[in-house]
Amino acid sequence: MRYATLILAVTALTGLTACRGDLSETTTGLAGCWNVHEHSYTHQWSFTEGYETYAWVRGARVYLHDDLLDVADLDRLACPDLDAPEDADPEDTWTEACNTGVRYDAYGWTTVELVRGDTSSDVRYPDYMLYTFGVSSTYDALYIAGPNDENRDGVIDDPDNETGASDIAVQIGWEPLGTGTGTTSADFFVDYWIYDQACGDASDTVDGVLDDGHCWAQTDEPQNPGAVGEHWSPESNVVSKTDADCIEG
Question: Does the pLDDT value for residue 166 go beyond 90?
Answer without folding.
Answer: no
